[in-house]
Design goal:
about 300 residues, alpha/beta, 2 domains, elongated
Amino acid sequence: MSKVAVLIPCYNEELTIAKVVKDCKKYLPKAEIFVCDNNSTDKTAEKAKKAGAKVMFEGRQGKGNAVRRMFADIDADVYVMIDGDGTYDIKAIPNLIKILQDEKSDMVVGVRKETEDACYRSGHRGGNKVLTKIVELILGYKLRDMLSGLRVFSKRFVKTFPAESKGFEIETELTIFALSRRLPIKEVDTDYFSRPEGSFSKLSTYKDGIIILKTIVFLIKEECPMMFFGMISLFLFLIGLGLGIPVVIEYLNTGLVPRFPTAILASSLMICSFISFLMGVVLDSVAKVKKEISRANYLKY
């Protein structure tokens, strides 16, 4: 029988963590429940332990750091990642695990379906849609909820995932890692509930949204450098062409010495465009080697 580990990264969730742990034990009676306390200033760790979870600690602040620690230290065949805020439908997890195993997927994502209008802050809902659409357009894979905190993973996914993110951008990194390596993933609808009274989200709509957007740009540069630098090259080329054509036309029509500042700027942009293209070609080869190494490590599991 597969060994299942439930991973719950937590920061100041004393109001909800006990119920989350108890529900995990109820619906996943044979699973090991791990709570990673990420510098909580309340009784999160105490209540998690009392509810029956194994508590570990991560001193580096941020959800990504907590997830990285758990992925490294915990050994299992199936990993369940869920937030400790009580908003996810825990009774749906056995079905997500079954889908993972039956379809031999590497990641199954619980797509959040609101049970009431107040579940999402409007900024969170809109930001999630925009960021999900950006990744969908760039990587060419239909996504519905890139930032969901409920996910089930295979061992080979967890043990080959680099986990470089520090904070809430961890879900973005998980998604782009899977898509860029064409790993089998699945999205399944699950209920999403409001936080209980007195419990507050740690996610900042604008601050964390900007961090997630920066993460998308960085990961696209790392995973798809030809696309990234190719777009920069095309942008520079078009600007250089737009500046250079009038200079050439003026010279051909009048025979006068062209405007040197504009001509130099246009030439410089063309040179930078060529350099960007070459960088894309070189880094694309490096990225392919990295992916081949990652693929070899993945297939060991």
